Amino acid sequence: MLPIKTPPMGWNSWNTFGRDINEQLIFEMADAMVEKGYRDAGYEYLVIDDCWSAKERDENGLLVAHPEKFPHGMKAVADYVHEKGLKFGIYSCAGTQTCDSHPGSFDHEYSDAAQFASWGVDFLKYDFCFFPQSGNCINAYHTMSMALKASGRDILFSPCNWGVNEPWTWMRSIGATMYRSTGDIQDNYVSMRDILISQLGNFNLSAPYCYNDMDMLVVGMNGKGNVALGGMTETEYRTHFAAWCFFGVPLMMGADLRSVDDTSRLLMQNRELLAINQDAECRPPFFVFKEENNQRIAAIRHLSDGSFALGCFNLSDMDRYFSIFLKDIGIPLHSGCKVELTNIFTGETTYHTENAHQPVFAHDCAILRGRIIK
Q1: How many CB atoms lie within 10 A of CB 369?
Q2: Quick check: pTM over 0.90?
Q3: In angstroms, what is the C-alpha Rg of the chain?
Q4: What is the C-alpha to C-alpha distance for residues 311 and 308, in angstroms, rounded to an integer?
């Protein structure tokens, strides 16, 4: 498999459309990824989630595209996606059935992987529903990983076992490129916040070529779609996207890209945030502090050009004031150095010699690019 050094970026159908997918929708989404600038911003994978297949395999035990939703078959869909300069992703499950009761890949790993390769698949999301009690989770995912290698095509492997069996301790060793570490995200602030907090201790186990996946983005859904349970404010979407970028996890969009509002579109194409997410060294965060039951978080990320990013996340329901002592990020006063901080959202640049103060509203964040000046 070709190495994927930085967190994968793309779009997945589940968050907005669930089972209501068809080839025309996928064609239009591929068009939108190109025409609205997402491809050029770095989003390269278009992934069809559950419900693309018929409810039964054919007489030879092979998967069959749903005849009404995808009448021209999955290779035709893959060809269209490839013609747009994008990569094509599909979905299966380690269990006997998918989460929506379509055929799973349990005991069909090698034939399914070969079939995906023949269609031109570039990405496999691999779920965990209907998994037999007698089965071995780790071995099942390793088996599909090896099947993909045997398929003759480079297919990114994206296991989705929701954090069962502490996947951050073994997914890298079985060949995964990204792996789900949490339950499903919903389009509301509490869901996003709780997922983020649940993974604060696991980012050091995410590294180049294999990334902790905190589930797909809900930015721009605005309370509409399959997982839209409440929606979020613009401020909360900004915190959601900034956190996923800052902590270096995959960026898989989930909104209807044909109709995303300009605020959300520009947020998901923010070059400064994407540069942090896609930094060549892909270093995990160094936490300056985690306070108030992880409701107030400050961290830095070392970047490959010698600069660093400083993230201040106020996940609480009250406005907060962040005081960052430079000594706590490795720059004591006697060093004779000062720090230049540029706010990514406002463009304001400030200089500091002992500490930096940053007010952050409730549910908001501040992301600053930092540079040491001698």
Answers
A1: 19
A2: yes
A3: 21
A4: 10
Strand bridging mode 355-360 / 320-325: antiparallel
- Residue-wise pLDDT for 291-302, tens only, equals 999 999 999 999
Note whether 118 and 63 are within 8 A (CB).
no
Cβ atoms of 301 and 275 closer than 8 Å: no
Q: Which residues are catalytic?
A: 127, 184
Q: For residue 1, what pLDDT is reported?
A: 46
Ordered by where they begin, the domains of the chain are 9-277 (3.20.20.70), 286-373 (2.60.40.1180)
pLDDT at 128 over 70: yes
Q: What is the SS3 assignment for 345?
A: coil
Residue showing tokens 């907090």:
197
Residue 88's region, left for phi above 0, alpha for psi from -120 to 50, else beta, is: beta
User: Is the CB of residue 257 less than 8 Å from the CB of residue 36?
Assistant: yes
Over the stretch 202-219, which tens digit does the pLDDT of each residue have? Answer: 998 888 999 999 999 999
Neighbours of 340 (CB within 10 A): 15
Look at residue 4 and tell me whether its pLDDT is greater than 90: no
For residue 276, the one-letter residue type is: I
The DSSP string of 35-90 is HTTHHHHT--EEE--SS-B-SS--TTS---B-TTT-TTHHHHHHHHHHHTT-EEEE
Q: Which amino acid is at 164?
A: V
**What is the rounded average pLDDT for all residues in the chain?**
97
Q: Which two tokens stand for residue 104?
A: 């799973």
Residue 296, strand partner residues: 291, 314
CB 310 within 8 A of CB 286: no
23-35 and 73-83 helices, crossing angle to 10°: 10
User: Are the C-beta atoms of residues 162 and 129 closer than 8 Å to each other?
Assistant: no
